[in-house]
């Protein structure tokens, strides 16, 4: 049986669960730089969440005062460049990463790769898996950003479902990769979807810190909240969203996050199939029956016009019924 998310221990994360909401605090003092160990911990965490039916939402926030995820640890990047000193073309790197992906899935493969000269690329493939898992997860991921959010931390957070930021001068967003001759690692395409390719490129060309208000205006964050209320707001939102059904959440996230990369026809087939599956299985029939009963009570008018609040709170029907808590 897979371990419960709340029972796991990590080097760089702390985890606590309240109802169907898991709160994850990033703890890499003193500066909360993203590291290879943090990526390993996030890999384990996101895998556990997908296998844990008691989790409906995950809040990720900083565990160091005044910090979210500052950016990737530049010292680690430099060490990787020194360790893998030979030049590598983009084509060769792509082929090598595909090979690493295959080897990683073999018994003992990951341990062997970590001791090999290509260990730095293993971190990239692992980070790819983390963000793909987040974008396909049956749980809702919410970033509660209360400090600097840059580089790999911003890229990963761009792949979350909701981003809240504290309305505070300590909160800022930066992508400094082009300033040091690098590109984004996992979040460039997602960022371009959120704020548009032109604005995403401008943000990287500038390389400066963007304020929380600028991030809101660009569409990088969903909303700003008073800094002192950030976690309370995130928990209220997460508790409400955690009442949604995990299977339909995962299906809808795939429609939004992956349908853009398919042909229109293929995307429509997948979307239609997801809807048909939801209608014929899971909690949807029970919800439809409840909706029609309430509609009858209001003389046939739409319940979403006459009595919406129980549905918003997730209390009209328990869509997580049957999922462990």
Order of helices and strands: EEHEHHHHEEHEEHHEHEHHHHHH
Could you say how many structural domains there are in total? 2
Distance between the termini: 15 Å
- In helices, the fraction of residues equals 40-55%
Share in β-strands:
5-15%
Q: Spans with pLDDT under 50 lasting ≥5 residues?
A: none
Give the CATH H-level superfamily of the largest domain. 2-enoyl-CoA Hydratase, Chain A, domain 1
Overall, the morphology is globular
Pfam families: ECH_1
Protein name: Enoyl-CoA hydratase
InterPro entries: ClpP/crotonase-like_dom_sf, Enoyl-CoA_hydra/iso
Keywords: Lipid metabolism
Give a brief description.
The chain has 325 residues and is α/β, with parallel strands linked by helices. The chain contains 15 helices and nine strands. Strand 1 (13-18) and strand 2 (21-26) form a beta hairpin.
Main traits of this protein?
alpha/beta; 15 helices; 6-stranded mixed β-sheet; 2-enoyl-CoA Hydratase, Chain A, domain 1; 3-stranded mixed β-sheet; 2 domains; 325 residues; 9 strands
Description:
The model has no long low-confidence stretch (mean pLDDT 85). The chain has two domains: 237 residues, 2-enoyl-CoA Hydratase, Chain A, domain 1 (Alpha-Beta Complex); 69 residues. Helix 1 runs parallel beside helix 5 and helix 3 crosses helix 5. The strands form two sheets. A six-stranded mixed β-sheet has the order 1-2-3-4-6-9, with helices on both faces. A three-stranded mixed β-sheet has the order 5-7-8. The protein has 15 helices and nine strands. A hairpin with a 2-residue loop joins strand 1 and strand 2. The longest helix has 18 residues.
